[in-house]
From TrEMBL:
Pfam families: CTP_transf_like, PfkB. PANTHER family: BIFUNCTIONAL PROTEIN HLDE. SUPFAM superfamilies: Nucleotidylyl transferase, Ribokinase-like. Coiled coil: none annotated. It comes from the Bacteria. The keyword ATP-binding applies. The lineage of its organism: Bacteria, Pseudomonadati, Pseudomonadota, Alphaproteobacteria, Acetobacterales. It catalyses: D-glycero-beta-D-manno-heptose 1-phosphate + ATP + H(+) = ADP-D-glycero-beta-D-manno-heptose + diphosphate; D-glycero-beta-D-manno-heptose 7-phosphate + ATP = D-glycero-beta-D-manno-heptose 1,7-bisphosphate + ADP + H(+). CDD domains: RfaE_like. GO terms for cellular component: cytosol. This is Bifunctional protein HldE. In the C-terminal section; belongs to the cytidylyltransferase family. In the N-terminal section; belongs to the carbohydrate kinase PfkB family.
Length: 499
């Protein structure tokens, strides 16, 4: 029978602070220690247009490969994407995958990695094969045995020391051996001793090792299995959640409920957050995002309900992306304040590169062009229409603002980058606009790897920056037809600088 407290549980967190935007921006102040199972996520993308003669299976013609930090390492990626800082303690094997994973983690700004190497261990790798944006196969390589006692002792010592330098500790358990045995209990005891909050993202149905944690994050199925209670409705979640908290002396439970959102349950209160996803493409990594945002929120000293709500919003963002993705602070700001977000199509170069990767995973050709676009004229519009007609999505990069001069050429001041970006974003042919601080677009071209590079026909192909690189990886260089000067002059606003 449901008690009165559960029956009065609000269906929406009406008592949350209203300024979620300020709360989201405060996440960049967080410093989080992540201890857990690091993995390497590998993706092979290509086309499968024929069946093998050797067996009735599709033949994947690989066109691109991508490697990303996965598992607990993906939690770290999400923390860094918010602008926060992370210390990461984990294990890799003495193999090529371990070296690759160590390099991927080490090159991220804001991460202090402590990746111990166990010689006899195999680094966990999840390899996915995709054709035309659809999964064909996933292959896992793993060695989920507990750590060698000496390695475990060293890991515990390093993690305990790192707790003192961070605001909150997150245990990301993927049942690959790092948090096997009594390791979680020892880490929880260490956190309690120095007064640091500790969060657990658990795996399996044995929760005794997590006793005494401040927050635990089961999904609905795990909650039902551990407590033996139903976990379908809001009322069920509250009752089962409080039973879990009482049994294992845990402070709060954030229960993920798939398409039903999340519920935050404490001994006294409960909040139910409806799902925030606008469109669902891939749920991979969403739990890592929730864990990262919750930990960053607690590290920034936000109220737990606010941190949970931000985590729910971030989960809705990442499931709308393809592959193991992250929720950047700009993504969250755009969701909370749409009038200043991605609805304007103006993004950072990093966000444009990330979006291009998602587009390509769906089999779309990505085009790129760069210029100043000081004042748009019909010639610009004509060129951009040609570019968009030759690809599925078009990204335009513009030059940043120049230092002010007493007098510009022709006696006319150049326009601000923000105004130029707004003009371009209003064109249907343009899908994304970003502002480049660098004088040359080459660095972005090399990272973006566009399928199509576009410049005006007045440029010789040998003079187009990045043309040789694009051609080398199988891309196309388009020298777009220019309108006669007389036609350009009919535009309402005339521009002297040419693309």
């Amino acid at each position: 029978m449901m008690n009165d407290a559960a029956s009065e549980t609000p269906s929406f967190p009406s008592d949350l602070p209203k300024d979620l935007l300020d709360g989201a921006r405060s996440l960049a102040r967080a410093s989080v220690l992540v201890v857990g199972d690091a993995m390497l996520d590998r993706y092979f993308y290509g086309e499968a247009n024929r069946i093998s003669l050797e067996a009735p299976v599709p033949v994947l013609c690989v066109q691109r490969e991508l490697s990303l930090p996965g598992g607990a390492a993906n939690v770290v990626r999400n923390i860094i994407a918010l602008g926060g800082a992370a210390a990461f303690v984990s294990i890799v094997g003495d193999d090529m995958a371990g070296s690759d994973l160590t390099a991927l983690i080490g090159r991220q700004n804001g991460v202090e990695p402590w990746l111990l190497v166990q010689g006899s261990r195999v680094t966990t790798v999840k390899t996915r094969f995709l054709a035309q944006g659809q999964h064909l196969l996933r292959v896992d390589t793993e060695d989920p045995v507990p750590l060698h006692p000496k390695i475990a002792e060293r890991l515990l010592r390093i993690a305990t020391d790192a707790m003192a330098a961070t605001a909150v500790t997150l245990l990301s358990d993927y049942s690959k051996g790092v948090l096997a045995g009594d390791m979680p209990a020892k880490l929880i005891a260490a956190a309690k001793k120095i007064g640091r909050p500790i969060i657990v993202d658990p795996r399996g149905e044995e929760y005794e090792p997590y006793r005494g944690a401040d927050v635990i994050m089961p999904n609905r199925r795990e909650l039902a299995a551990v407590t033996g209670l139903p976990a379908e409705s809001d009322e069920h979640i509250v009752l089962a959640g409080r039973a879990l908290l009482a049994r294992f002396a845990i402070g709060a439970a954030l229960v993920t409920r798939s398409e039903h959102g999340m519920s935050l349950v404490t001994p006294e209160d409960a909040w139910h957050f409806p799902a925030e996803a606008l469109e669902v493409h891939d749920v991979a990594g969403a739990g890592d995002t929730v864990a990262a945002i919750l930990a960053a929120g607690m590290g920034a000293r936000l109220a737990l309900p606010m941190a949970a709500r931000l985590a729910n919003i971030a989960a809705g963002i990442v499931v709308g992306k393809v592959g193991t993705a992250v929720a950047r602070l700009a993504d969250i700001e755009a969701r909370l304040a749409p009038e200043t977000g991605d609805h304007t199509k103006i993004v950072t170069p990093a966000a444009a590169i990330e979006q291009a990767e998602r587009w390509r995973r769906r089999g779309w050709r990505v085009g790129f062009t760069h210029g100043r676009f000081d004042r748009l004229h019909q010639g610009h519009a004509h060129l951009l229409e040609q570019a968009r007609g030759a690809c599925d999505r078009l990204i335009v990069a513009i030059d940043a603002d120049e230092p002010p001069l007493p007098k510009r050429s022709l006696g006319r001041a150049t326009r601000r980058a923000a105004d130029r970006a707004m003009d371009l974003a209003a064109l249907p042919a343009v899908d994304l606009v970003c502002v480049l601080e660098e004088e040359s677009p080459l660095a972005m071209i090399l990272t973006l790897k566009p399928d199509l590079l576009v410049k005006g026909a007045s440029h010789a192909e040998g003079d187009i920056i990045g043309a040789d690189r694009v051609a080398a990886w199988g891309g196309t260089v388009l020298r777009a037809e220019l309108l006669p000067a007389s036609a350009r002059g009919k535009a309402r606003v005339v521009s002297d600088p040419e693309l």
